[in-house]
Amino acid sequence: MLGLTFVSFLSLNISPAMTSVAHAQQPLYIAYPPKNHQTTADQIFLIGTAAPQGDVTINGQKIQRSNQGHFAPSFPLKLGVNRFVLRHKNQTIDLTVTRNSTIPIIPQGGGFADNSLSPNQPISVLPNTPICFGAIASPNAQVSVTIADKTIPLLPRDKSVELPANYSILTDSNEPVINSFTKYQGCTKFNQFGKLGTPNFQLKINNKTIAQKGEGSVNILNPNQLKIS
């Protein structure tokens, strides 16, 4: 009975103190983002907590926290790797966040964006069927495609404007983004039969010419030789 009374007394009298000590010794903790996080967003929230005593800094910058020690500041992200160093007293956490691009990247000095030429796979159509060729390339360029000794100009489509993401209202970055690339397209018809080969794309900008071979070949079917299974 004495042992039970002692245990009960210890529990009732030490639990509040232990709770206070645990709160004071709460380690620096990051709930979001996870390690080696990748995103396409241009902003990110660093959500975490630490003991209320002392300051928390991120890359040397003191951040605001709640009375309980919680924090959720927002930081801009550049394309590529972004490093954040969080410190609280003698604790340090290193975070790496990689921002990936969602828009085509134009080579420096001008050119075609990777994997932007179309068609990008072999196509077979009947004679006089419209065939459209497309490319994403530098703005204000002269773009054309040549196939079967025929040159088709690719004209710029309407300049596209990206609307801001839904989270932008939280980060005060709700201005539309004007893309630094242009989509070009041109269509034509062929009345001859046979394999026309692979198109060759050409771009002229700033007194230089850039050529690139397409990936999708074009085949014009002979309607008299179609096999019906």
TrEMBL record:
InterPro entries: Ig-like_fold. It comes from Crocosphaera watsonii WH 0402. Gene3D superfamilies: Immunoglobulins (2.60.40.10). Keywords: Signal. This is N-acetylmuramoyl-L-alanine amidase. Residues 1-19 form the signal peptide.
